[in-house]
Specification:
Two copies of one chain form a homodimer. Chain A starts with a helix and ends in a 16-residue tail after the last helix. A two-stranded antiparallel ribbon of chain A has the order 1-2. The first copy, chain A, is elongated. Chain A is built from six helices and two strands, in the order αααββααα. Chain A is mainly alpha-helical and 151 residues long. At the A-B interface, α1, α5 and α6 of A face α1, α5 and α6 of B. The first copy, chain A, binds a DNA duplex (30 and 30 nucleotides) through residues 4-6, 26-28, 37, 39-40, 42-43, 45-46, 49, 56-64, 151.
Chain lengths: 151, 151
DNA sequence: GAATATCCCTACAAACTTTGTCGACTTACA
DNA sequence: TGTAAGTCGACAAAGTTTGTAGGGATATTC
């Protein structure tokens, strides 16, 4: 339960874009398909743009596209963007781990690091090309959505 | 970064008790050794008592002991007590997962479930007997502690 | 049976984080 | 110049986490 809403939204958005071979999607449409409040997506997408994951065009016929091949975007990349360190506890991050206050050379930390590494391995091993393939087909029946988002 | 302080404290406390072959430890001493504010441990320990993990005795010469063999207490058990579901996202819990709002049968969920399962496998595979063994020896130099906790 | 040592319970405030909204702004196109 | 997009920053409401405080309950000792 540690993945924030925004992280979730971001990954859904990238998946949606991955299923849309190259064509741009307007924020509004993206919000509808992913069932994300538009106003929140308005914050999430620029973050990914700054990070070079997506690219945007303004004006009519504008929208968002992926800035790379889906095969080059890992889940890890997106999650890290919004989530920060993936370690379950701050003494087990890879950069600047907080020192353990317990003497007994925190044997617990080893386990936390294993969890961290397993997480990284999994998230780092999945690209959005994989996810799109597994999802099968382009997009399915937007009409089935709960009447779109109010935002 | 998803393990709460209280979860951390609880695991440290159980490790400390595991290193103390059977003898009871007073809350105060436990707090000192684990570098946890005593007032917080006062909340954490009863939770574990209720869960049957530790046992307590009141009055002089009282304190806490493990209620089972350290080999029968997994990290998973303790983490779950304080952390709740281990899934990274609420649509991927084993019990009553929240339905995914995205149609495309949330292919992302599969990955979240893999992360969840990897976490469970790791945490469930480590007992406090393992941890105590890895820690080596009983307890090390409590004198090295940052002058105990103020609480 | 009083004094003391220890655990137990509840309430709670301060701090922090997350979530979603809003309004004003910028850019592209026709 | 008007319209269709994306952009940015501020922010309030809600939720979570963290630590503290104070009054109880129970066991031992003398």
């Amino acid at each position: 339960m540690w993945v924030s809403r925004r992280t979730d939204y971001a990954t859904r958005a990238i998946l949606a874009l991955s299923l849309e071979n190259g064509g741009p999607l307007k924020l509004e449409e993206l919000a509808r398909r992913t069932a994300v409040p538009q106003s929140v997506l308005e914050q999430v997408m620029p973050t990914m743009r700054t990070a070079g994951v997506v690219r945007s065009e303004r004006g009519p016929a504008g929208g968002y596209r992926l800035n790379k091949d889906p095969g080059e975007i890992t889940l890890e990349r997106i999650v890290r963007l919004f989530q920060g360190p993936l370690a379950p506890i701050s003494c087990a991050t890879r950069h600047n781990p907080e020192p353990c206050p317990m003497m007994v050379g925190c044997t617990l930390r080893d386990v936390w690091e294993e969890v961290r590494d397993a997480t990284i391995t999994l998230l780092g091993g999945v690209t959005f090309a994989d996810l799109a393939k597994r999802a099968g087909g382009p997009w399915t029946d937007p009409a089935l959505l709960p009447t779109a988002t109010p935002g």
